[in-house]
Structure prediction request, 279 residues.
Amino acid sequence: MLKEESLSTRLIDNQGVQCFGNRQPCLFGDGDKYIHLLGDSHLGSISPSFVDQLADKYSVSILQSGECLPALNVQKFRAGSSNLIDENCDLNYQMQRYNFIKKHPGLVIVLARYPVYFSNGVFFNNMEGGVERDIYRPMISTRGKSITKEFESFMVTLSKIPGVSVAILNSVPEVGFNVPRAAWERWLRGHNSLLTTSAEVFADRNSRTEFVLSNLNSSQNISIIDLHPLFCDHQFPKRCAVEFPVNNLFYQDDDHLNSTGAGMVTKHVIDLLSLLTND
Prediction:
């Protein structure tokens, strides 16, 4: 899922420590109000843009680890193991993220690659020849509940902390092929057709996520922000764009946004949150 050359690795704290995957929260800015960026590498690839836009006014925390859906009572196995727990996504790490938010209440922005977690590790097939092949490291609930229910429960728990509001970003559309590589191969062939994928396939892939988020949307202090209108059914009906115009790519691989895509999402989210909070 995470390609380690990603933008997630760009953020370095004042001690020179890489923020993404760090068990200790990273903090940027010194504003009185807090914004917490809680999620996995999908949010990690966007976070540099959020920090650039928000850290001059807010205290912005990075609470992220790769392939680690934020949810209490949920942990992840290490690669190649069915009994060793990954310390970057164990119960202590999940609780540490929660406690930091509880200590510094504010706005919590959440994003993760929900379709993979909610399907227990089914990666993306765009049904047009793009099939993602990766190894899923299972996440398990220590209470025997589904990962979906644990996520829902954690979002509601966060929203009940006094002074906390939660903004859950809906899925970044997956692509099914490495976008920069596909653009390079297109150039080698002398073609100039835009790279797109099926919006209908994305909608089907994301249907479980839509159901979960629609349930949460009725909860107090939780808002849902859809990202797919930025990419799907916008420039082209029934298609999701991975670039526009040609060679203005939105992705750094097959599912993580690059700085251009991140900038689009950041502006969209900040504009909407400004309307919601009048801030």
Notes: Strands lie at 26-28, 34-39, 59-64, 74-76, 106-111, 139-141, 165-169, 196-198, 222-225, 239-241. The first strand starts at residue 26 and ends at 28. Residues 9 and 253 are 14 Å apart (CA to CA).
